[in-house]
Task: structure prediction
Amino acid sequence: MWVTADGRIRQELLPNGRYDEARGNRKSAYTGSYSIRGSIIDYVDDTGFTADGEFRDDVLYHAGMIFYRER
Result:
């Protein structure tokens, strides 16, 4: 589980290559698939929208947001 510092956005990267992103009280606001190549993560939302991100020092940078691994 990856979460923004304020806890508002939570992104669960599932072991089957799917993700589920919650925003505020809205569970499953975005869902889709992901793949990881080295430090790069590529997303394909179920609507067809694509995005990417990068892992650096156990922090995920994605779409102008910073996610921290939930402990």
About this structure: The chain has no helices and eight strands. The chain has one domain: 2-69.
